[in-house]
Amino acid sequence: MTNELPPGLAIQKVDERIMTLNVGPQHPGSGHMRIIVQIDGDYIVACDPDPGYVHRGEEKMAEYRNYITNIPHLERPVIHDSCNVLYPYVLGVEELLGIEVPERAKYVRVICSELNRCIYIMYWLAIYGIFLGHSTMFMWPAGDRELLIDLMEKISGARVTHAHFVPGGVRNDLPPNFEEVCLRQVNYFEKRIKEYAAVFYDNPILISRTENTGVLSREDAIRLGTTGSVLRASGVDYDLRIKEPYDVYEELDVHSPVMKEGDSYARSKIPWLDMLESCNIIKQALQKMPKSGSVRVKLKPNPKGKGLDSVYKRVESGRGSLGCHIVSDGKVEPYRLKLSVGSFRNLIALPYLLKGEKLGNMPSVYWSLNYWPVEADR
Amino acid sequence: MSVIAPNFKLSEFIKSLIDDIVWTVLIMSLIGIPAIMMILFYVPMPVIDGELLTPFLAFTYLADPSRTLPIVQAFMTTDMFKIMAFPGFGFAALLAAGTIFVERKMLAKLQLRVGPFYCGKVEGILQLMGDGLKLISKEIIIPAKADKPIFWAAPVLFVASAAAFVALIPVAPGWVVADVDMGLLAVFAVIGFFPIVTILSAWSANSKFPFIGGIRALFQMVSFEIPLILSLLGVVMVTGTLNLSEIAASQSSFPWILFLPVGAIVFFITMLAELERIPFDLPEAESEIVAGWLTELSGMMYGLVQLGTYLKLYAFAALFVVLFLGGWNGPMVVPPFPMEIVTEGIELGPVTAKIAGLPLFDQEMLNGTFWFILKTVGVIFFILLPRGVFPRIRVDMLLNLGWHKLIGLAFVNIFIALGLVYAGVLGPGGLQ
Is B285 in contact with A137 (Cβ distance < 8 A)? Predict the structure, then answer.
């Protein structure tokens, strides 16, 4: 009997100067996860993110439900971005079952998806603001979000969990007079979020606090496999709406914002620029949308896949690329369903970014990763 | 609205109140009054104005203002009144409570919210009482490994230090609890207590987050005390005194902020840091270190620290007013007291009453208090405002600001003051 343990289990000898902090899960700055931070004085020497507190087994649950009943629970990982979470699944099922979607439904999907992206980013921005100690930036986005939530409620009937996308189109047609209401609300929303620059993004204290903190270089961003706003803040122009356009994105004029700095400030500004771009896309889509027509192809009850088959679809969600891999064995349920989410991919960068930073930079770097704990845990 | 407890019925509540009153009156009249009379039977009564003080005469005194007012006036000159009520704790605590309410309402309006609304019918004015009741009724939880005597003592010490600070502030001519010649020096001494109390509370909790918060508070307060003291030296040079009442009186024609704006700005910024207010609320940064050095405090211990914090806020704002904005000095707006009430009396129906002991407060004092409160509330408003506008700054930026920029600016202010004195524009005692 020897006392030697395998290398991973060996007790680490820790310097007496180093203090271990458990940031989370019952910490106001952590979200539904834990970050084990080791600090030497005010400097972080090591950081170990520990997700998994809100694992719900979405992927396993999907194997016991048929293709239609999977819809309401698959949007649960990010209820604020529920249309985008459901998007790759719906696209995949359409390819599996061989369904052609009507043109108007595609436009409605794009509008819903962009509205949801804004709703999610506003929620994220509220959290980012309060974690930097800016309470006004918590209240303003949380209030202005209601404008778009009202629109989504008009479309789908629900405030957050819409379950509006179905294989073959969307559940219901747009309500009458929707175009004018949408245009008015979106214009006002755009005017409001431009005001945020004065109070938040141009604030000298915010700039001095977030500039040059947690810098992720272009090479590291690619090598670590980050996606979405984190990747674009590091100077990589990669947006699935442009690179792999789905539905009607290729007919629309999409300019994805890119910044070169790769620091916490750039990562926090990209989502805000994304919102402005989303407003543009919504306005274009409202113009080009066919004014009438069907929005849904009627399916048989309990649709089945055609034998052994698999499909992988991905879309650009509020947190980056969101992929869905569906394997079908010809039954009414999927044989296996796998979600590949942006949150989890961005979290990988956290230990690299926080090492050597000050403890005061932890909230600004951590939340600039556009991380959503529930989505990462699935 | 089901805001109140679910089983609440107004009729039963009123019934219980009436029950209580009836029982109290019954017990008092059957047992209490005979007991008092029996005691009075053995106590020799004093003789006032040649009359024996019987219980009936005592009740007459209460109803007769010409006999009560001199007693009240005599009470008002005692130190007890000054410490407890007017320039001391009661007045400051009332202003502090008003500050909390104004802060919450103002911040709410800034952030497109409503703020406190339901408690107390009118715009939630009783919200603070509700919060206080909640804090009193909460259980106080002490960490098992805490150093208990110090942990218990720290909040009390904090309030005591803040109250000592309040005692040095002159509100109106002659209205100050402790009129000491070394007033400003005493202020510096009291300010020096706060970091000690903070680190005591933080360290005795024996917990990680309070410890980090306490160290941060220590850094912040110690490094900002130096520019704070230096920024006030300019005023001392031009007035030639450390007595706060004399400094306030020396500004009867103009406030020092006109001559020493740099010192005022440095003092205002250091004041924000000493008060741990946004953007300098690092010791309580909740996204990094939970609630900083307040993390383990619960129930009324937390309430005491909050009370101390707002007393401190009032005291700092008042110090700013006394040193830079002219204290109680201002145009006379209070009308003179109608003296014919004292000399000729008031006609109350058939009788003409002559009330001795009036006026309770003289015109100078009322006017001084009015201007003092107005200026203090204005300064408090500017202390509260950054909370809605700025995010929190980082500890290295804070120390950089304190040691590099503010100390330099404080020296610039001292040179300005020196120049003013040597050029003969200003000098000890005011304009020359």
Answer: no
